[in-house]
């Protein structure tokens, strides 16, 4: 329900120079029959670091020009001010909630509101070690193909993960699968659960990423957020990479895209 509204907000934000897309030079890198996407940022990425006053938490308060829609009572949908893929939407909690605390049912109920077509990819970075750049609770949405989807749904990923598949999305079902994944992957000890099978907000999760589509959810525990100054967040596990220099992309190609993902996760 957000995408049509987002188009109108993007149009106005571009006119007013409130939205600052990061253009990239993209290429396809084939490895073991998989066509990964590699993006090298161009000089206009400097606009991200020259975009006015610094703000510790850009989501509280958020820029009104980035507002797309309410996402239930506890969340809002905003534009990512510096998108590589546009539109890039953020589902943010209205009040501050740490990115490292366990997701709640209301987070999933707000997040699934953005999945009204088959080409939507959601991802979540739990903490800096999983690639989070902001400490305020936010889930992300883009419209994108998924180079690694075949490997994901056929259980071909060579690192620790859990996959949950669905006929249809609901916040309640996602939340139950999420709780199971936290326990099974050791991201949060089962003793952290309360009597009603919920999770206290003061709990802190070990770093992990979530990938979400209309048909599946993937949970990946993380071990590091970078190798050789190449950083990894949730969207990398869809098969898409962003680097600062062409030399980094050449190194990544030599190192191996899947090997990089494996070494950034847990075994």
TrEMBL record:
Active-site residues, record numbering mapped to chain: 138
Entries under InterPro entries matching the protein: Ap4A_phos1/2, Ap4A_phos1/2-like, Ap4A_phos1/2_N, HIT-like_sf
Residue ranges of domain Ap4A phosphorylase 1/2 N-terminal in the record: 2-158
Swiss-Prot/TrEMBL GO biological process terms: nucleotide metabolic process
A molecular function GO annotation: ATP:ADP adenylyltransferase activity
Pfam family, one: Ap4A_phos_N
Top-level lineage group: Bacteria
PANTHER family according to UniProt: AP-4-A PHOSPHORYLASE II, PUTATIVE (AFU_ORTHOLOGUE AFUA_5G14690)-RELATED
Protein name, entry field: Phosphorylase
Organism lineage: Bacteria, Pseudomonadati, Pseudomonadota, Gammaproteobacteria, Vibrionales
């Amino acid at each position: 329900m957000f995408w049509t509204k987002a188009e109108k907000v993007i149009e106005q934000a571009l006119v007013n120079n409130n939205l600052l897309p990061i253009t990239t030079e993209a290429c396809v890198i084939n490895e073991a029959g998989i066509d990964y996407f590699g993006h090298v940022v161009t000089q206009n990425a400097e606009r991200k670091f020259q975009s006015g006053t610094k703000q510790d938490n850009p989501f509280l308060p958020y820029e009104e020009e980035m507002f797309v829609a309410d996402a239930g009572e506890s969340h809002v949908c905003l534009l990512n001010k510096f998108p590589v893929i546009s539109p890039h939407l953020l589902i943010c909690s209205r009040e501050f909630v740490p990115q490292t605390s366990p997701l709640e049912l209301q987070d999933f109920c707000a997040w699934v509101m953005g999945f009204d077509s088959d080409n939507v990819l959601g991802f979540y970075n739990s903490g800096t070690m999983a690639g989070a750049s902001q400490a305020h609770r936010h889930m992300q949405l883009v419209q994108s193909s998924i180079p690694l989807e075949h490997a994901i749904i056929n259980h071909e990923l060579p690192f620790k993960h859990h996959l949950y598949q669905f006929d249809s999305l609901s916040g309640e079902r996602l939340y139950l699968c999420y709780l199971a994944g936290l326990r099974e992957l050791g991201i949060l000890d089962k003793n952290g659960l309360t009597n009603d099978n919920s999770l206290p907000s003061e709990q802190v999760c070990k770093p992990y990423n979530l990938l979400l589509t209309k048909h599946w959810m993937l949970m990946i525990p993380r071990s590091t957020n970078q190798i050789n100054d190449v950083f990894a967040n949730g969207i990398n596990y869809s098969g898409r990479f962003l680097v600062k220099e062409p030399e980094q992309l050449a190194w990544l190609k030599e190192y191996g895209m899947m090997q990089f993902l494996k070494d950034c996760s847990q075994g």
